[in-house]
Amino acid sequence: MRIWTVHQRPALAGKPVRTVMVREGFSWLAALFPLFWFLAKRLWLVAALYFSLATFMGFVLPSGISPWALIALQILTGFEARNLQRWSLQRKGFRLMGVVQGKNEDGAVLNLADRRPDLARGLA
């Protein structure tokens, strides 16, 4: 079973209620292509911070250590990418509403609709 956290943004002026589910666990795409993953998830600030840190590490660290440090940064990014996504959602006004599990995302949505239909209505 996989686990998702459910985040909801209340209705704002002209914008309806929005619910987002973020999966728990390691993200292979974020580890392999961190900058593209951040941009695809619309995490602009995180993408800028990652780019700045990777560039800084590339210039400051010695050439023998730099590639290994960048690989370590990418592995760390794979572990923390979804937490950074949750942090970004919180900055945008989303609140953690609960946790749901399922074999896949569709199963998790069905479990959410069964237990909390009010949250499932705002899924994007």
Offer a quick outline of the entry.
The chain has helices at residues 28-32, 34-40, 44-60, 66-91, 105-115, 117-120, and strands at 2-9, 18-23, 95-102. The protein is an alpha+beta fold. A hairpin with an 8-residue loop joins β1 (2-9) and β2.
Kindly report the spatial arrangement of strands forming the biggest sheet.
Answer: 2-1-3
Write the element-wise H/E pattern from the N-terminal end onward: EEHHHHEHH
Distance between the termini: 22 Å
Nearest-angstrom radius of gyration?
17 Å
Molecular shape: elongated
Number of distinct beta strands: 3
Note the beta-strand portion: 15-25%
Class by SSE composition: alpha+beta
Mean pLDDT: 90
* Uncertain ranges: none
Give the number of helices.
Answer: 6
Question: Percent range for helical residues?
Answer: 55-70%
**Biggest sheet architecture:** 3 strands, antiparallel
Please explain how this structure is put together.
- The chain is α+β, with helices and mostly antiparallel strands and 124 residues long.
- The chain has helices at 28-32, 34-40, 44-60, 66-91, 105-115, 117-120, and strands at 2-9, 18-23, 95-102.
- A three-stranded antiparallel beta sheet has the order 2-1-3, with helices on both faces.
- Strand 1 (2-9) and strand 2 (18-23) form a beta hairpin.
- The longest helix is centred in the middle third of the chain and has 26 residues, at 66-91.
- The radius of gyration is 17 Å and the shape is elongated.
- The chain starts with a strand and ends with a helix.
- The model has no long low-confidence stretch (mean pLDDT 90).
